[in-house]
Design goal:
Length: about 160
């Protein structure tokens, strides 16, 4: 895909990050129902929630690092990176944010309905959806080119 064309003109495909986000939501919801019905499985729900949170943090850091590298030549805003505000079609934003909503609602509803504090960990799993949003943006989106690409006389690659 050309990085100079907007995503709408590239003939984008959904990509693994969107599917991965929904698979994680289904796994979280399944574990939540199992843990709610069988008390001994609550630790599985905690493990899945913390695992999704950890992978989501790694995805967020990875995408942010990639955005720092690309930001020397492209204008990448935080709202474009995490909210896909101007760089993705409405259908993609809807799919990503509905996956995030599924995580958040699962975590909050089960934390409210169950008296065990183990269910509060489910709220952290929504970071996995945010990580997938930012990774999708870095993989599939192009951003406007930076107008001034030449470094100033005060800017250097040497960090002395």
């Amino acid at each position: 895909m050309s990085r100079n064309m907007p995503v709408r003109e590239q003939g984008y495909r959904v990509g693994n990050h969107l599917m991965r986000s929904w698979v994680g939501a289904i796994v979280l919801l399944s574990c939540a129902f199992l843990a709610a019905s069988i008390e001994k499985i609550e630790l599985l729900y905690v493990s899945v929630s913390l695992g999704l949170f950890a992978v989501g943090v790694v995805f967020c850091i990875w995408a942010f690092t990639r955005s720092l590298v690309r930001s020397r030549y492209e204008v990448i805003t935080t709202s474009d990176l995490f909210l896909l505000s101007t760089v993705a079609p409405r259908s993609i934003r809807l799919w990503h944010w509905s996956a995030f909503t599924a995580y958040a609602v699962t975590g909050i509803v089960f934390a409210i309905l169950r008296t065990s504090t183990n269910f509060a960990f489910g709220i952290l799993a929504s970071v996995f959806a945010l990580g997938n949003v930012s990774m999708w943006a870095m993989t599939h989106c192009s951003f406007p080119e930076r107008i001034n690409k030449t470094p100033s006389k005060y800017e250097s690659d040497d960090y002395e």
